[in-house]
Amino acid sequence: MAHILIVGKSFSGLKNYLIDNGHSFTVLQDMRTTKFPDKKFKNRVVADFGSYENLFKSVDNIQQERPIDGLLTTYENYILDAAHIAKHLGLPGISTEAAAACTDKERMRNLFAISPTKISPDFAVVTSEVDVEVFANNHQFPLIIKPANLSKSLLVTKSSSLDELSQNYTKTIQQINAVYQKYAPGQQPKLLIEEFLEGPIFSVDAFVDANGEPHILENVVDYQTGYDIGYDDNFHYSRLLPSRLSSDKIEAIRKTAKAGCRALGMTSSSAHIEIIYTTNGPRIVEIGARNGGYRERMHWLANGIDITKNAIALSLNRPLDIRSLKDDPVGVFELFPKTPGIFEGLANEKELRQLPSLHYLSIKAKPGQFVGKAGDGYKMCAVVILHNSNQQQFEKDTRYLREHVAIKVSQ
C-alpha cells in the first residue's frame, strides 16, 4: 500500500480508485480556492500555495504523520507546485524547469524552436496592440491569440483580418484578469499570438519515465473543434477513439510527440500532447504534464488501458503497462451554446438519455445561468460520453447526438 499526496485538488473518481486499489491518500488543497479552509475533513490538508516556504511546512507535517510515497496532480494549475514538492521530498517527479515549460507556452515554444525538427508554430508574446500588429504584418492570417498559461481553450480566439484581430485582442484584455482570477489564481496573465496551423487536430497521451524516455500510447485521439462544426469558438467539441488516421500518420504523430517530450526535458511525468496535422506534417499545439481530460474513461472503455494505474506506477517509479487490449469506439463531447445567453437546458435530453451508447452525461450549467463561448472565458455546459462495442450502434447514436442535441439558451 502506498501513501499518495494529491496536489492542489482532487476528484471523487481518483480518490475512490486509490481506496479500491489499496492505497491511502492525502489531498493537499489550495487555500485560495477552498470555500471552507478551516473545516476539518478526513484526508485533506489546506495549505498556503502562495508561498513555497509555507507549502513545504504543510507537506513536512503530512510526511511526519505518514511518509509520502508518491505524488499525483491532475490539474494544470498545480503541475509546477507538484514539481517543487517532489524535489523537496526527493520523490519521482518532473523537474521544476520542465514543469515551468509545460505550464507556460512561451517557454514551451522556445524549447520547441531548438528541436532538431520543426514541431511547433511561430509565435510572440504580446503586451500591446502594437505588438499584435507587428506580428500580423510578418505572418499570414488567420492568427491565434491565446493565454500562455490557461487550459480548456479559455480566451483562445482566431482572427482572419487585422480588424478582427484588434477587436479580439481588446476584448481579451478586458476579460483576462477576471478569467485568471477565477481559473488560475496566483498566475500572472500572459498573452501569445501565433500562426494558425491549418489541419485536423489530434492528441496522444504518454508516460515519461525517470530516464526521460517517453512511452507513447498507440492510440491517437481524433478531435473536432467548435470551428469544425460551424461555431465561432475554438473549444474541443469531440474526442474520438479509434482514430480514422492511417497507420503511417499515427506513427508520425507518435514520433513528433516523443520529440516534444524530449525537447521539454520531461522526466517521471504523464504527458498529454495536442497536435495539428498540417500539410507539412505534425505540429505540436502544446504538451501538458498530466493526462488529458477524460482519458481515464476513454482509454479504459476503448482500449482496456488503466491510465490512473500507470500514473500511480510512474509516481512510485514502478513498471508501466500501456498495452492496448481492445479497440472499441468511444466519443467524448463538450457542449457549448452556439450563441451566448441564459441556459435553458439540452434539446432532446430525454432521447439522449435513452441512447444505447450513452455512458455518461453531466450537465454542468444551471437553469437561468448565463453561458457563453470558451473564447470569452466560459466553460462547457454539458459533457456526453458515448461508448458501444457495436460500431454501427455507436455511429448511429453519435449521429443523433450531433444532429439533435444542443444547448438551449434564451436572450
Largest sheet: 9 strands, antiparallel
Alpha-carbon distance between the two ends = 54 Å
**What is the C-alpha radius of gyration, as a whole number of Å?**
21 Å
Contiguous runs where pLDDT drops below 50 for at least 5 residues: none
Strand content: 25-35%
Mean pLDDT: 95
The helix content, as a percent range, equals 25-40%
**Total beta-strand segments:** 20
- Work out the helix count: 12
By secondary-structure content and strand pairing, the structural class works out as alpha+beta
For this entry, what is the oligomeric state of its chains?
single chain
- Principal-axis shape: globular
Feature tags:
four-stranded parallel β-sheet; about 400 residues; nine-stranded antiparallel β-sheet; about 25% strand; alpha+beta
